[in-house]
Amino acid sequence: MKPLSFAPSFGRFASNTPWTCTTCRAQLLRHAKFQRTSSQHYSTSRPSGWSGRGPRTRARTRVAVLTATATGATGAGVLAFTDEIKYGYDVTERTGRVAATLALCINDYRTSLNRREASDDLTEQETILKQCHKRCAVRTLKVLEKNGGIFIKLGQHLSAMTYLLPYEWTSTFIPLQDKCPVSSYESIEEMFRQDTGEELRDYFSEFAHEPIGAASLAQVHLATVKETGQRVAVKVQHPGLAQWAPLDMALTKLTFSTLKRFFPEYDLEWLSSEMEASLPQELDFQLEASNAIRTKQHFQKLPELPLVIPNVLWAKKRILVMANESGRRLDDLDYLDSNGIDRDEVSATLAHIFNEMIFGKNAPLHCDPHGGNIAIRKTSAKRRGGKNFEIIMYDHGLYRDIPEHLQRSYAKMWLAVIDGDMDGMKQHAHDVAGVTEEQFPLFASAITGRDYTVVSSSILKSRSEEEKKTMGDALQEGLLSDLVTMLGQVPRIILLILKTNDLTRSLDESLHTRQGPMRTFLILAHYCARTVLREQVDEIRQRPGSLLSPGNAIRFVAAWMGYLRVELKLEVFELWLSIRRVIGLNTTQYSASASIL
User: Fold this and answer.
1) Burial state string for 1-24 with b = 16 or more CB within 10 A and e = fewer than 16
2) Most distant CA atoms of the chain, gap in Å
3) How far apart are CA 575 and CA 563, in angstroms?
4) How does strand 365-366 pair with strand 399-400?
């Protein structure tokens, strides 16, 4: 946080170099020029050493100069004090909003929980708690909107945490997904000048004054490159963000540590720690450019996947210039249907893309795939793989690499989930996140977004409204504190995978496909089986001898046959789904009680 300091103001008075305002300096220069000219003029006609001015005249001039200098310095000091005072006032106001709302919410929860315990009516208990959730969520929303910047980002993240927070909180924060600040064109001009040493007009022949989109950390303007005429999208960070980022992160950390002090069972400090680690990456647009280039190069090896990553022209820390690749939102169902884009194919393509990111060898993982960061557009000709659309992915600021050993354990865990192997699930969940047997049901629900009774029977069933309500009620009844505690213990990469899973699940549900979750789980199983095969082949290669030696060859064939067994079952099942889709049957009605693996 920037300290409230008057040193720069006093420093001007203490400096040996006099300071004057522009007007006074101009007057002094004109006066000095006149003095020099007069002096030179008279020196040619008077004896040497005669100045043409008496002592009284020199004294009056000196007084005038000193008076003008003092007046300018005083004005500068006042301006400096005004800036510092304004900054100090803004800091106090920003901090005060957070502190006051935090105190009100803590008091509200303590009072409501006491009233809840005093009541014997279960319906009344539920009503008291839900009303308290709603009041505190509304108060918090107002603070997030007023403070803006990182607080908007925090609210967006919380709105997606449906597996963790009560419905009253997540639903109240939904408006933050589309309600983001817009920085003025003038401030963008000034930032461009500071960061590049050039004017916008030096590089762009056209630069839209209004952004085509604004997010919590940045906004995007359309522009035209002067030299080439290329149409580009220019992502610029909100200029005032850097000023408030340290203070806002300190306030976020203070909020969660205070909540932990009053409600130890709800330890959310891991959330502020994750933001503290992620935010510097998201604010570095040069890192984002590097992530985008790497992702583009990875998926160029997979032309059957219609993924478009905009080309990066150049980047500074707060400015990113990319090729303009536009599309429509994934949940624009009217656009999909009117252009003959099959929702089921879109869902399957998303599943392929994100499973490749999670399980692909040396693949980068996009950890913020919400609706605003992904678009779709119709193509004039079908690409390889038979798709008549392309998926466009934006915002590559938050990426992670999943360690190979974690990839492999995670793949085995999901194969056990799909196969209904409870013992295998527990073993691999422990390998992935250190989850104990007591925590496993909660972890299984968090990682799948499903009720544990469904996980233990068949994950392939569609999620019903009754199941959603059951999970919400379970959180209300005390599982929330257990979930918060467990998430504070798992590795950070697992938290980001959870976030990615939750966001992609939300995207898939917004498409309202005919097949429900079955096809996406089949695609997941394909990538998991491939990952396990890769591990088995690597282990065989580490053994003495070549792959053709008798022992290794038998092991290789056994591993390959196990992979083909899974692939064959998946292909048959997908063919069955395709036939039902062609003849117009709703495949979600298909009984998925049996194991597919």
Assistant:
1) eeeeeeeebeeeeeeeeebbbeeb
2) 117
3) 18
4) antiparallel
Among 210, 87, 218, 206, smallest CA distance to 150 is for 218
Per DSSP (E only), the strands in 316-468 are: 319-323, 328-329, 365-366, 374-378, 389-393, 399-400
Q: Is 337 considered catalytic here?
A: no
DSSP 476: I
User: How far is Cα 572 from Cα 594, in angstroms, rounded to an integer?
Assistant: 14
User: Which is the catalytic residue, given 344, 368, 395, 451?
Assistant: 368
| Contact predicate 429/472, CB 8 Å | no
- pLDDT tens-digit readout, 226-258: 999 999 999 999 998 888 888 899 999 999 899
SS (H, E, C) 271-322: HHHHHHHHHHHHCCHHHHHHHHHHHHHHHHCCCCCCEECCCEEEECCCEEEE
Asked if 435 and 425 touch (Cβ cutoff 8 Å), the reply is no
Q: CB count, 10 Å around CB of 473?
A: 11
Q: Of 101, 90, 94, 189, whose CA–CA distance to 150 is shortest?
A: 94
Instruction: Name residues whose C-beta falls within 8 Å of residue 296's C-beta, 6 or more positions apart in sequence.
Output: 309, 311
110, 258 contact by CB (below 8 A):
no
What the block records as the tokens of 528 is 């998991």
Contact 370, 327 (CB under 8 A): no
Question: pTM of the prediction?
Answer: 0.75
Strands (E), 472-578: none
Q: State mean pLDDT over 413-423.
A: 86
Q: Alpha-carbon distance 568 to 578, whole Å? A: 15
Q: Mind listing the pLDDT tens digit for each residue in 332-361? A: 999 999 999 988 889 889 999 999 999 999
